[in-house]
Every structure is written in C-alpha cells, then in structure tokens.
Design goal:
The structure is a homodimer. Chain A is mainly α. Chain A folds into two domains: 50 residues, Arc Repressor Mutant, subunit A (Orthogonal Bundle); 125 residues, Orthogonal Bundle (Tetracycline Repressor, domain 2). Helices cover 75% and strands 0% of the residues of chain A. Chain A is built from nine helices and no strands. In chain A, helix 1 packs across helix 2. Chain A is elongated, with a radius of gyration of 19 Å. The relative contact order of chain A is 0.11. Chains A and B meet through helix 8 and helix 9 of A and helix 8 and helix 9 of B. Chain A binds a DNA duplex through helix 1, helix 2 and helix 3.
DNA sequence: ACACATACGGATGAACTATCCGTTTTGGGG
DNA sequence: CCCCAAAACGGATAGTTCATCCGTATGTGT
C-alpha cells in the first residue's frame, strides 16, 4: 500500500473544509457545488466521497468522537443521576449546535459505517450510565438503552422546529431536556 | 364561476387517491410518478397540483382537520390535565400513523396556506387546554404555547428514529409521550 | 530524467422537475 | 341532435441536478 499522494491529501482536506462551511451556513450539501466552491473537478470530489452522506459523515465525525469520549468521562462522575443527565445534556447540545450531527444521527444503520460505529460506542457509554442510575434507583424502569439516541434526536428536532435562529436553540434544547429528565426520574 | 368539469373532478380525486397510496407505502412523492400510476398526463397532475408539497398538503389535510376538531372535543373534557394529555396523545398518534402529516407539519410557514391555517387552529385549541390545565395547577409554568407543536414533532421524530417497522411505532410514541407528560406535570 | 501509478478535470449521460401548447373532451345554447 | 367555445388533457421538451467515465496531468520511486 502506497501512502497516498500529497495533492490527494491536500484536496481531501480542502473538500472537507468547504463542506464544513456549507453545512454551517445551512446550505444543503451538494457535491457538484462543493467541487465548484473548492475549485476542483467534480470527479475529484466524487472519488474522495462517493455520496453526499459519506462527505457529511466525515464532516460530522470529529464532533461525534468528542461525544463518544465525553461519555467515558461521565463514568467518573459521583452521582449516577447527575452523570447520566450531564451525558444527555452534552449529546443534545452537540446536536443543536452542529447541523451535520443531526443528519448523520438520523441515517439508517449500516449506510455510514464510521457513524454507526461511533453511535454504538456512545450508546455503550449511555447504557453504562443508565444502568448505574437505575441501580441507584434514580431513573424509571421503562427507559431502555435503545431509547436514548432517539430521544436525544427528538429533542434536537423539536428544537429545530421551535426556533429558526441558531441563537435561540441552546436554551430551548436545555429546557426541553430538563422536562424530559424530570419525566425520566424515578 | 363555472362549477368545474366532471372529468377534472374525477381526475383530481384519482390523483389524490394515488398519492395517498404512495405516501402510505413510503415511496417519495413524485408528480411524474403519480401521473404514470394514475394513467394521466404529467400536465394534468401539475395543473391540479403545482408542486409536490401542494399535493402532499391535500393528502394530509383530512387528517389534520380531524386533529383540529379533536381539540374542540377535548375542551369539553372534565379534568383539565386529562383533556390536555388526551389532546397531545391524539396529535402524536396522528403523526406516527400518517407519514404525510409529519412532512407537512415540518413545512415552513406560508408555503402551505391550508396547513398553516389548520396548524394555527390546532395550536389555538392547544393553548386553551394548556391554559386551563395551568389554571388548575396541573402543569408546570415553563411550558409555552409555542412549545406544543415542536414537542409533538420531536416525539414523532424520535419514534421514527427508534423503530423501523410501523407496527412498533404507536406503542413507542405513547411511551415517549407518557414520559414527557410526567415531566410536564406540576 | 524516466516511467508508471495515482489522481485530476470536466464532458457527458441518466434521472428528475416543470412548462407549454396543440389536441381532445365537455356541456350549455340553438 | 349538433355545434362550438371554454375547459381540460397529454406528452414532447427544456431546465436542473446527480453521478460516471476516461483522456490528461501530476506526483514519486528508480
């Protein structure tokens, strides 16, 4: 395996950077569009990222990784309930801050391998925190591991429906999560 | 104003029926596609419904109307909290049952006049029920009128993320709503 | 410097959207 | 019953966006 050519690496970075910009300004990601803005040929972009989703995944991955490691820290927290709540808060905050995150989170299993992987990892951490909280009798029994990610996506979605301007989102999301957490507490 | 010709009326019905089928089977709505399936010319479909969204709106309207009148009935309920809860339950059940409903609910203000109208009506009913429940001291103060629709959309979204098969959706949605309601109760 | 692998670019075809206008159908008046 | 103007139909076609393919250019080890 040859290491990869310099120009290829440079273009890869450039494409991801341009995509990040587009995502941040809310423009729907279109590969031909990315190519034009990056001053590259369409073929180049498509070779690096066969689909829009693949590019989106790459853009979102750093943020997802951050969330995954966040979960590990949470395990060290003293109060099991607080640890669980803090964990969920971080996830929701990430989702309402980064539009790319919502999109990849909603993607079906297996289409985005890296994302699927990281989601599993996050879910693993969530499970541990949930189990601890449940053992401590802090959380209701009817909440399942598999509910965590969907519920966080739901709150993020509700937040996007509620507020047009990005500035309003964080407080709204926190308020919604608080309400949900109140309902989850035993 | 001339009453409209019979063939036009017949085709209109037919188009809506075909669209309903497509929506139900999860196929993304495409007007050319609708035309082919209905055995009509593309032009005919476009004349009746200038955009995909317009057709979707027509498909979703009966269901939205049902929800709107549901709210009115709810006003007659004895217990203010129960009335409010029952109202939200109906909305969520509608959203997870009918894919069309989710899509039009998410549409921006003003693009779908009829939908915007009905949403306002539903929100009006929701406001009244919320006000009553609040007066009775049954619901927390930090919930605003404008939060109702987003939260219901959020629950529907969470439900779609959670379960692939339509059969699982209704129980999941009910469970999520229960949790939320517990968190809303004063 | 050479040659070969690797990567680039954009012309190009496929898929879909939406319009326009010549033809057909409808239904009220003669 | 027939006529004809208004109304509606159908589908060819122009405009977009998506994705591929291959001739050309560029980087890299010898």
């Amino acid at each position: 395996m040859t290491p990869q050519r310099k120009d290829a690496a440079r273009n890869w970075e450039h494409i991801v950077a341009v995509a990040r910009e587009l995502v941040d300004e809310g423009t729907p990601l279109q590969l031909n569009d990315v190519a034009r803005r990056a001053g590259l040929g369409v073929g180049t972009v498509y070779r690096h990222f066969p689909t829009t989703e693949a590019l989106l995944e790459t853009v979102a991955t750093p943020c997802l990784e951050a969330l995954a490691s966040q979960g590990e820290q949470g395990l060290a927290h003293d109060d099991p309930w607080e640890a669980f709540a803090a964990f969920l808060t971080k996830i929701v905050e990430g989702q309402v801050t980064d539009p790319a995150l919502v999109k990849v989170s909603a993607a079906a299993q297996d289409v985005l391998p890296r994302t699927t992987d990281l989601k599993k990892q996050i879910m693993g951490n969530g499970s541990k925190l949930l189990a601890k909280a449940r053992e401590a009798g802090a959380v209701r029994a009817d909440l399942d591991d598999a509910d965590i990610v969907p519920l966080m996506c739901g709150i993020a979605y509700a937040t996007y429906v509620h507020s047009g301007s990005p500035a309003d989102r964080l407080p709204t999301a926190r308020r919604y999560l608080e309400t949900l957490l109140r309902g989850l507490r035993a």
